[in-house]
Design goal:
A hairpin with an 8-residue loop joins strand 6 and strand 7. The chain starts with a helix and ends with a helix. By secondary structure, it is of the alpha+beta class. The protein contains 15 helices and 19 strands. It is about 35% helix and about 25% strand. Bound molecules: flavin-adenine dinucleotide (FAD). The site of flavin-adenine dinucleotide has 32 residues, from helix 2, strand 6 and helix 15.
Length: about 400
């Protein structure tokens, strides 16, 4: 996006990437349906960025959801709003959008250099040339200005391995450690539960998270049992406070409501119906509709087959699951942490290294899934591109 802004202003841009092709994570994002942005109202949209809202607000106002949809339209890609408000390309895919975009960039004055791994500067920046490891050996490039958009540390096999943190830190740039965001968690499942239910989704459940001072966060949706824990949309949505709690205290407890549409009283009444010769699971299914992984989870958490209808109903409404560890950032959808906004000016230029700008996930912000990640990446890219133009003009 930074390259596009600069090329549109008539500047020649050289784009370097360590991988044999660009946009690998973007293409992966398109695999499950490219969620480009979100159509909710401005206030709700901005609130998803939590404490990062402050540094991001003005640039998200410049390239927010509507502008991003218009940009995609300009590339011949129509978008639609899904039932949850998420915005996708009409065909859900990333490849046609990326293809059209790269074509337009190449028609402009953007030259792509693949298999060029940026190693840092030869000497002390600013002024020192950039150093790249390439198949032809090391290259030094003198740039009029540089935009770094090196990503976070999730899915390093796609190119973003976070190795740039050491390079920037060595040059005195404040960097918050890269941590898992939108990630799964470990749970100590029993062998029986793990073998039977790994990969099973828990659909239409609510998770409640209680904070230290009694405040609760509640989300409804679905998540997946993995062989070592839990992952999926509902877990990702709560992953920031869960991660923070685990880092503070070593564990985090979520309460799962397995039957959010039924009150505890109704469940207790239904469960109190005579069981006859039915098994515990059969009785549970007949009276509450719970079965499969939901019954399995109840059994896993309750130490014995609870027969008291009231107590069983309470457990169904608030089944505690203890999360004991955060999955590594390499497996996460995105990373928190990165270049501290205090190290940057309004144009996203490094205060300590004039002429070097940063954009995308490598900046210290985080957001849930829902199109918020790509939107902020695009918006910071645009701001960095404009920042370069501004710097050329005013210094
Ligand atoms: C499975 C998955 C699904 C996702 N789905 C969505 C979604 O639907 N919607 C959404 O909003 N977000 C989604 N995301 C997140 C989104 O893809 C990322 O936030 C976004 O791609 C980050 O963009 P970026 O340009 O900052 O970094 P990246 O896309 O990671 O790109 C950084 C680039 O820098 C290159 N690079 C890194 N270090 C060097 C170096 N030293 N030298 C040279 N090149 C280097 C890398 O090769 C890479 O090409 C998803 C992520 C994953 C993993």
């Amino acid at each position: 996006m930074a390259a596009e802004v600069l090329a549109s202003a008539g500047r020649a841009v050289d784009l370097y990437d360590a991988m044999p092709s660009v946009g690998r994570k973007f293409l992966l994002a398109g695999k499950g349906g490219l969620n480009l942005t979100h159509a909710e109202a401005r206030e709700a949209f901005l609130s998803r960025y939590g404490s990062s809202r402050v540094p991001l607000e003005s640039l998200l106002d410049e390239l927010g959801p509507s502008a991003l949809r218009a940009w995609a339209h300009g590339l011949g890609i129509e978008t639609f709003v899904g039932t949850s408000g998420r915005v996708f390309p009409a065909d859900m895919k990333a490849a046609p959008l990326l293809r059209a975009w790269l074509h337009r960039l190449r028609q402009g004055r953007v030259t792509f250099h693949m298999r060029h791994r940026w190693l840092g500067w030869h000497g002390v920046p600013p002024g020192a040339p950039l150093v790249f490891a390439t198949p032809e050996g090391e290259k030094r490039i003198q740039a009029a200005a540089t935009v770094l958009a090196l990503g976070g540390a999730s899915w390093p096999q796609l190119g973003s391995d976070g190795s740039w943190t050491a390079t920037l830190a060595a040059n005195g740039i404040a960097i918050a450690p890269l941590r898992s965001a939108n990630c799964g968690f470990d749970v100590r499942w029993s062998e029986t539960f793990r073998t039977r239910y790994a990969g099973h989704p828990l659909k239409n459940v609510t998770i409640v998270l209680r904070g230290d001072s009694g405040e609760t966060t509640q989300r409804r949706g679905e998540f997946i049992v993995t062989s070592g824990g839990v992952e999926g949309g509902l877990i990702y949505a709560l992953s920031a406070p869960l991660r923070d709690a685990i880092e503070r205290t070593g564990e985090a407890v979520i309460e799962v409501d397995l039957a959010p549409d039924r009150s505890v009283d109704r469940l207790a009444n239904d469960l109190a119906r005579p069981r006859g010769s039915s098994s515990w699971s059969r009785h549970l299914e007949r009276t509450t509709g719970l079965r499969g992984v939901k019954t399995g989870l109840l059994r896993e958490v309750l130490t014995s087959r609870e027969v008291d209808a009231g107590r069983l109903a309470t457990s169904i409404k608030a089944l505690p699951i203890t999360l004991v560890a955060v999955r590594p950032v390499a497996e996460a959808i995105s990373s928190a942490g990165g270049v501290d906004f205090k190290a940057l000016d309004e144009r996203l230029m490094l205060k300590a290294v004039p002429g070097v700008f940063c954009a995308g996930e490598m900046l210290d912000w985080e957001a849930p899934t829902g199109g918020y990640l790509l939107t902020a990446c695009f918006a910071t890219g645009r701001r960095a591109g404009q920042g370069v133009l501004d710097w050329f003009e005013k210094g």
